[in-house]
Amino acid sequence: MAIRSYKGITPAIDASVYVDESAVLVGEIRIGKDSSVWPLVAARGDVNYIRIGERTNIQDGSVLHLTRASKSNPEGYPLIIGDEVTVGHKVMLHGCQLGNRILVGMGAIVMDNAIIEDNVIIGGGSLVPPKKRLESGYLYVGSPVKQARPLTEQELDFLAISADNYVQLKDEYLAEN
Ligand SMILES: CC(C)(COP(=O)(O)OP(=O)(O)OC[C@H]1O[C@@H](n2cnc3c(N)ncnc32)[C@H](O)[C@@H]1OP(=O)(O)O)[C@@H](O)C(=O)NCCC(=O)NCCS
Hints:
The structure is a single chain. By secondary structure, the protein is mainly beta. The chain contains one helix and 20 strands. The strands form two sheets. Strands 1, 2, 4, 6, 8, 9, 11, 12, 14, 15, 17 and 18 form a twelve-stranded parallel beta sheet that branches. An eight-stranded mixed beta sheet has the order 3-5-7-10-13-16-19-20. A hairpin with a 4-residue loop joins strand 19 and strand 20. Bound molecules: coenzyme A. The site of coenzyme A has 16 residues, from strand 19 and strand 20. Coenzyme A binds near residues 103, 123, 139 and 148.
């Protein structure tokens, strides 16, 4: 497993988190209880910080990075991910903020300062442009994303179920090691 310090800061990862041994986590990263990080994820907390909440899964091949602070942008753009978020395979999350119970479909790209409110699904292959705000309770698809329709009750329920499935799966992986 490649968990590396950068400028004296080491990722702070709760003991209940599963991190695949091929994932690379560098620098200022905090990961909460029962989350999981799957093969070939690259997360670089070097020019700003990454926060990942509880019961969140970051699936295979996803890339997580940030934007540094500057004169015109004194905080820069950290990456903040809430609880019970499912980040699908090969997603790119860059300097954005995700609330709770969100599904980011496979191959989606979310750019700087985009804000994804709670209970949102982003379709596979979608692009969320800089500064875009996705409203709670809706499906968004396309490149750039457009609001497609309200989520059904079943889809809203599925957001927590998906998170739960990944908590179970990471427990099985932890038991293997
Ligand atoms: C977004 C998603 C949930 C929508 O599924 P759905 O119920 O079949 O969607 P709908 O039938 O309501 O589609 C609404 C519209 O969006 C379009 N659409 C659906 N998914 C799309 C996508 N990923 N990109 C672009 N358009 C999409 C549909 O064609 C439809 O367009 P229309 O109204 O012009 O016909 C599904 O397509 C998806 O992308 N799931 C992601 C799964 C994933 O990546 N999981 C993580 C890994 S486990």
